[in-house]
Amino acid sequence: GAVVSQHPSRVICKSGTSVKIECRSLDFQATTMFWYRQFPKQSLMLMATSNEGSKATYEQGVEKDKFLINHASLTLSTLTVTSAHPEDSSFYICSASIEVKTQYFGPGTRLLVL
Amino acid sequence: KQEVTQIPAALSVPEGENLVLNCSFTDSAIYNLQWFRQDPGKGLTSLLLIQSSQREQTSGRLNASLDKSSGRSTLYIAASQPGDSATYLCAVRRKDSSYKLIFGSGTRLLVRP
């Protein structure tokens, strides 16, 4: 149980385009979803926390207009990287919670911006 | 501000060795501490979770300890195998309404056959 999926697993895009990443909780309803970013050989850094039906809460230094998060249902959250640039290339990981004290992580999405 | 540090950053050992990975954190007001494994290009696999009131947790060849007062945790791996090669991440969960996870930068482990 408690499986979280992400789609796509890998994406390559041109600079200036937008990319959408989906995060789904497959066998449970997630009241809260988290989005993390991980640069090579670095730790996971929390970008934002989203609760179903409400606006996401962004961490300090994360541009909310650049990283659009939508949590429209209890099983789906999306992260859209708008006008992507090479420095946005990273590994993006989501996690989902039934209650915030436990997080189940997705397999991650590798984004490469050319 | 909570900071989590893991030492060493990288470790290479021959198969069969027992090894210890270290994690330290600056704020002892934590809800729990969790150890994860991450294979290259993959997501996280939870290994062990220690509640703040606990001293250790064991799962198979893995044993994690927690000394909250000193801000330290160790992950002990017994009889290491090549399949244990991965990055090991330590994360503390904040003891506030957010319960956010704060991650260390990880220890990259290579177990040589």
Helix content of chain A: under 10%
- Overall average residue pLDDT of chain B: 94
Which structural class do the helices and strands of chain A define? mainly beta
In total, how many beta strands of chain A? 11
Largest interface: pair, residues per side: A-B, 19 and 21 residues
**Radius of gyration of CA atoms of chain B, rounded to a whole number:** 14 Å
Q: Quick gist of this model?
A:
The complex is a heterodimer of chains A (114) and B (113). By secondary structure, chain A is mainly beta.
SSE arrangement:
The complex is a heterodimer of chains A (114) and B (113).
Chain A lengths: L3 E4 L2 E4 L5 E7 L6 E7 L5 E8 L5 E2 L8 E7 L2 E6 L8 E8 L6 E2 L3 E5 L1
Parallel strand pairs in A: 2-11
Antiparallel strand pairs in A: 1-3, 3-8, 4-5, 4-9, 5-6, 7-8, 9-10, 9-11
Chain B lengths: L3 E4 L2 E5 L4 E7 L4 E9 L5 E8 L4 E4 L2 E6 L4 E6 L8 E9 L6 E3 L3 E6 L1
Parallel strand pairs in B: 2-11
Antiparallel strand pairs in B: 1-3, 3-8, 4-5, 4-9, 6-7, 7-8, 9-10, 9-11
Overview of this structure, please?
The complex is a heterodimer of chains A (114) and B (113). Chain A is mainly β and 114 residues long. Helices cover 0% and strands 53% of the residues of chain A. Chain A is built from no helices and eleven strands. Chain A has strands spanning 4-7, 10-13, 19-25, 32-38, 44-51, 57-58, 67-73, 76-81, 90-97, 104-105, 109-113. In chain A, strands 2, 4, 5, 6, 9, 10 and 11 form a seven-stranded mixed sheet that branches. In chain A, strands 1-3-8-7 form a four-stranded antiparallel sheet, with no helix packed on it. In chain A, β4 and β5 form a beta hairpin. The N and C termini of chain A lie far apart (37 Å). Chain B has 113 residues and is mainly β. Chain B has strands spanning 4-7, 10-14, 19-25, 30-38, 44-51, 56-59, 62-67, 72-77, 86-94, 101-103, 107-112. The model of chain B has no long low-confidence stretch (mean pLDDT 94). Chain B is globular, with a radius of gyration of 14 Å. Helices cover 0% and strands 59% of the residues of chain B. In chain B, the strands form two sheets. In chain B, strands 2, 4, 5, 9, 10 and 11 form a six-stranded mixed sheet that branches. A five-stranded antiparallel sheet of chain B has the order 1-3-8-7-6, with no helix packed on it. Chain B has no helices and eleven strands. The chains are: A mainly beta (114), B mainly beta (113). The interface between A and B is medium-sized, with 19 and 21 residues.
